[in-house]
TrEMBL record:
Pfam family, one: ABC_tran
Originating species: Peptidiphaga gingivicola
Entry GO MF terms: ATP binding; ATP hydrolysis activity
Superkingdom to which the source organism belongs: Bacteria
Keyword Thylakoid assigned: no
Coiled coil: none
SUPFAM superfamilies to which the protein is assigned, alphabetical: P-loop containing nucleoside triphosphate hydrolases
Keywords: ATP-binding, Nucleotide-binding
This protein's record includes keyword Transmembrane: no
Residues covered by the ABC transporter domain: 6-233
Protein name as it appears in the record: ABC transporter domain-containing protein
Amino acid sequence: MNPLGIDVADLTFHYERHPQNVVDHASFRIEPGSITGLLGRNGSGKSTLAMLMAGLLYPTSGSVRANGQPVYENPGLMANVCYVSDSAPIFEDEKTRRTLELWEASRPNWDRDYANELIEAFGIDVKKKPSRLSRGQLSSLYALLGLASRCPVTIFDEVHLGMDAVAREVFYTSLLADYTKHPRTLVLSSHLIEEIESLLDSVIFMDNGRIVESGDADDVRSRYSDGGELAHLTDVLLKMTFSSNTAAAYRILQKGRDHE
Ligand SMILES: Nc1ncnc2c1ncn2[C@@H]1O[C@H](COP(=O)(O)OP(=O)(O)OP(=O)(O)O)[C@@H](O)[C@H]1O
């Protein structure tokens, strides 16, 4: 299957018994075959939006479509839209090899050789149960599952946060190399903005459930530049934070700057 585009239209979501909108009237398009960063502060709604995009949550209102089709519980899309986080389905108490077999059976584009290459690069012992892997090894396993699945849409929701610097570098390098050979639509949700910045074609910034910036990564960076060099995406996030209602964070950052 070719890479899929995603259209999100006026999407709103709140959790049961929590009336506040966690995703609030979001609209944007993700181009097929692009790498998009889903960025924002803790609790801004990234994971919720990512799960809505993967069809794992039903919108309160609005829609998410992949190549024009609604994603929620759509059997035709389930195998092609892959959401990977630290709650992805694995057999915790069986050898890791079993989880790889499960994913291979359910992902039509699974590449076993690529999976084996990643197992070696990440140093994952597939004879161990996932519950016996270290935090970083477990994160690497999730990353591996997402990469080797080669789904037309793959959403990595902060899978790499538990990895050490070398494993993260392996993840980014392998992701880019494999994406170049097998183009697909990738979404990366992350706090480690500086590390993933160079990978991104486009960005979506969230704040309190709202999309406060989105579009081509360089266009967004240039909108936040004061002339000269392009602003880093972290600067964009900081500027957004300053302009949003997070007065306590602002006060701490401002005090730090006054001491410099
Ligand atoms: N199952 C749930 N029930 C009720 N509220 C929830 C649930 N999951 C998340 N929330 C709330 O929704 C908001 C957004 O959470 P979400 O996990 O989507 O944010 P995030 O940007 O991914 O955060 P982080 O970067 O810290 O992982 C938070 O206020 C959170 O407390």
